[in-house]
Amino acid sequence: MKKMKKAFITWITGQDWSYLAQLLLDKWYEVHGIKRRASSFNTERIDYLFENKNFNLHYWDLTDSANLIKLISEIKPDEIYNLAAQSHVHVSFEMPEYTANADGIWTLRLLEAIRIAWLEKTTKFYQASTSELFWWLEYNRPEAWYTEESPMHPRSPYGCAKLYAMWITRNYKESYDMFACNWILFNHESPVRWETFVTRKITMAVAKISLWLQNKLLLWNLDAKRDWWHAKDYVDAMWLMLQQEKCEDYVISTWETNTVRDFVNWSFEEVWINIEWRWKWIEEKWYNKKTWECIVEVDSRYFRPAEVDFLLWDSTKARKELWWIPKYSVRDMCKEMVASDVEKFRKQEILKNHWYEILEQYEI
Ligand code: NAP
Ligand code: GDD
Predict the structure, then answer these.
(1) Is the pLDDT of residue 146 over 80?
(2) Confidence class of residue 140 from pLDDT cuts 50, 70 and 90?
(3) Does the active-site annotation cover 112?
(4) What is the atom index within ligand 1 of the atom nearest the CA of 15?
(5) How far apart are the C-alpha atoms of 358 and 354, rounded to whole Å?
(6) N or C end of the chain: smaller count of CB under 10 Å?
(7) What is the full DSSP assignment across 66-109?
(8) Residues at CB less than 6 angstroms from ligand 1
């Protein structure tokens, strides 16, 4: 009988994990995921997986080496997907030291644990790298595409930590002949994206505004351009990358870039709210064309001291070598996210009203 493969994935509560875990379980893997202890429940994305006997959960924090070595030595995984990180760019300016530890040094701990467990020739290692490593110095090239040859210039403590993680992965590959590769990921989103990233923040606010549950959406840089992508398409590519004979770094991207402003417009279109923007003094404000209420405003609290304001990549290499074809467009993704949030808040409201009715009925 064919031996079941073992996959070890760092963290289980994040966006990508929920999709990757399902993909691996469908491919008949024994899946090991980690979670740090939290005093409140945060496993709603993956609760349905607990019934699967091939799914295993371990407690552990990224900063805890001893437990990591014990886990890797006991499990002896065939594939390790290193997805855990303090992944919020804005937060990294407020917590730079923690970010360096969790996103940079942490990768070194993991690579060392593989060596200590004598698994460097058998375990394949995947590092979630990022497009936040790149920035065009010459602002006169804002519409140019990035390629694997573009200069690296991180613009945040998050980017700097990830740059270290990328190079230490390359160094272990070269030094110890390990199968250790970097996947340079562009922004990927989905209905289970955390609420503090801009796309989900927008779709949640738009859903609530359409249901009269929120008045206004507050944002900062509306002109930032991103190469957005659906997380489901991304996890297919992550798995493909570790199945290759040759260990290579790859980039995956859509070949399309859009502004935060575009994403706001599309989202309101999904709930049939027409908006118009106007300048008031030096501030830009967006109005509902039916009620003339202001529903989008710029708020300096979301300002970043330095910013990657443009992202667009040429992913020819990955498409040629991996034969990977995405299934979603950015507009499909936006549609799915808005619909999912409208559904979620509508259900919540129905439930709330239902409880009020019961309480009133029994005069509680
Ligand atoms: P995410 O939703 O923010 O999830 C990050 C996870 O890491 C969270 O579940 C968090 O756990 C966990 N974590 C953070 N610090 C930890 C610690 N000290 N100990 C244990 N767990 C810890 O991330 P994502 O968007 O799915 O991204 C996955 C990976 O790809 C990340 O490495 C990110 O940097 C990289 N990436 C993402 C994108 C993107 O657009 N999504 C693009 C490029 C690269 P808690 O739930 O307990 O906080
Ligand atoms: N989060 C957020 N909140 N971003 C805003 C807001 C706001 O209110 N208003 C404007 N933006 C702009 C940000 O300044 C940025 O230019 C853009 O929207 C996208 O911000 P995020 O969604 O927070 O993502 P990110 O691009 O900074 O980082 C994400 O993608 C990286 C890959 O490019 C994260 O997932 C990183 O972990 C990942 O490496």
Answers:
(1) no
(2) very low
(3) no
(4) 26
(5) 6
(6) N
(7) HHHHHHHHHH--SEEEE--S---HHHHHHSHHHHIIIIIIHHHH
(8) 11, 13-16, 36, 38, 42, 61-63, 83-87, 102, 128, 130, 185, 187-188, 194
d(Cα 348, Cα 346) in Å, to the nearest integer? 5
Give the pLDDT score at 322.
83
The phi, psi pair for 7, rounded to 5°, reads -115, 140
Segment 113-127 mean pLDDT: 96
- Is the model's pLDDT at 2 over the cut of 50? yes
Among this protein's residues, is 147 annotated catalytic? no
The span from the CA of 353 to the CA of 359, in Å, is 10
Q: What is the dihedral of CA 335, 336, 338, 339, to 10 degrees?
A: 110
What lies within 8 Å, CB to CB, of 298 at 6+ separation is: 218, 219, 220, 222, 283, 284, 285
Element holding 164 (H helix, E strand)? helix 157-176
Closest C-alpha among 196, 349, 342, 215 to residue 267: 342
Write the pLDDT tens digit of every residue in 155-177: 999 999 999 999 999 999 999 99
The ligand whose atoms approach the alpha carbon of 188 most closely is 1
- Residue 164 falls in the annotated catalytic set: no
Tokens standing for residue 349: 């409201």
**Domains of the chain, each with CATH number or no CATH:** 6-185 (3.40.50.720)
Per-residue pLDDT at 13: 78
pLDDT exceeding 70 applies to what percent of the chain? 95
291, β-bridge pairs: none
Between CA 85 and CA 110 the distance in angstroms is 13
Q: Look at phi and psi of residue 35 and say left if phi exceeds 0, alpha if psi is from -120 to 50, else beta.
A: beta
DSSP label at residue 200? H
User: Cα separation of 25 and 6, whole Å?
Assistant: 10
Query: 182 pairs with which residues across the strands?
Result: 127
